[in-house]
User: Which sequence fits this backbone?
């Protein structure tokens, strides 16, 4: 079993079958450097006071949670009132519906978690559910109450285990129409489309996350290491070369750019286009 502690323990249920499972976060909390604001002369961290406009600092006991139902008007709620409507962490995650694996828009997916059997007794039933999902090409849907909130979740096979992903509810997502409405509805030029498709085919490969590195985070860690080595002294960093503003003289023809990319940077061959003769 992994060294980290499960964030949830309970039963994964399919109809009358219940399986003891544990849930683990699939992402690392400390994978990226985090910063605090520091008072430079003293080297001590900065803290913030709770203040009210026209009043100044206020006591912690005077603070309540407020929901802004209209501009500058709030309905106030006590912690006790909020706790009263929190959902108790249910010990059962029931798969109530199944959908095809490609039916859920990626826009809905939020955070990934690993779902594993709790003990040896649960393994056989767990494997049956996992392999049944894999064979059918389906994803199981259910709702999980966790830490006072209720999450819509999707469960699917992942290697020897199951991957549970929280999903956004419908009312949490913005509609795409306001953002896409100004994009012309015309089809791409056939010749350009052919070359672009060929370029995509050329660069198509199996997904391997190890190929992609977070260059910013790597550079940030290297900067921190250099700063530690220099004992806090100011160090210089190299600036990226500035790109010249594009003008009429250096506008690159789209077809030429696609052809050059397709041929691996070589000078593109002359583009031949055919047009229908006017009748």
Assistant:
């Amino acid at each position: 079993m992994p060294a980290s502690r499960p964030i949830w323990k309970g039963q994964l249920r399919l109809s009358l079958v219940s399986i003891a499972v544990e849930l683990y976060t699939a992402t690392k909390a400390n994978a990226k450097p985090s910063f605090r604001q520091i008072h430079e002369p003293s080297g001590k961290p900065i803290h913030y006071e709770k203040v009210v406009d026209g009043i100044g600092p206020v006591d912690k006991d005077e603070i309540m949670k407020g929901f802004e139902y209209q501009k500058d008007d709030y309905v106030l709620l006590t912690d006790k009132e909020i706790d009263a409507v929190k959902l108790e962490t249910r010990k059962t995650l029931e798969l109530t519906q199944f959908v095809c694996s490609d039916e859920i828009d990626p826009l809905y997916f939020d955070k990934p978690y690993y779902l594993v059997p709790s003990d040896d007794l649960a393994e056989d039933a767990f494997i049956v559910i996992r392999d049944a999902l894999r064979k059918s090409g389906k994803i199981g849907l259910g709702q999980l109450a966790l830490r006072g909130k209720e999450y819509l979740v999707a469960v699917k096979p992942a290697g020897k285990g199951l991957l549970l992903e929280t999903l956004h509810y419908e009312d949490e997502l913005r509609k795409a129409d306001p953002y896409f409405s100004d994009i012309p509805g015309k089809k791409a030029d056939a010749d350009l489309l052919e070359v672009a498709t060929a370029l995509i085919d050329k660069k198509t490969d199996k997904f391997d996350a190890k190929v992609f590195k977070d260059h910013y985070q790597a550079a940030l860690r290297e900067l921190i290491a250099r700063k530690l080595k220099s004992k806090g002294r100011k160090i210089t960093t190299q600036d990226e070369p500035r790109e010249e503003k594009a003008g009429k003289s250096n506008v690159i023809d789209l077809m030429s750019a696609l052809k050059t990319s397709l041929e691996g940077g070589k000078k593109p061959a002359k583009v031949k286009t055919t047009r229908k003769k006017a009748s």
Notes: The helical segments are 79-85, 120-136, 177-180, 190-202, 215-229, 254-262. The chain is about 25% helix and 30% strand. The longest helix spans residues 120-136.
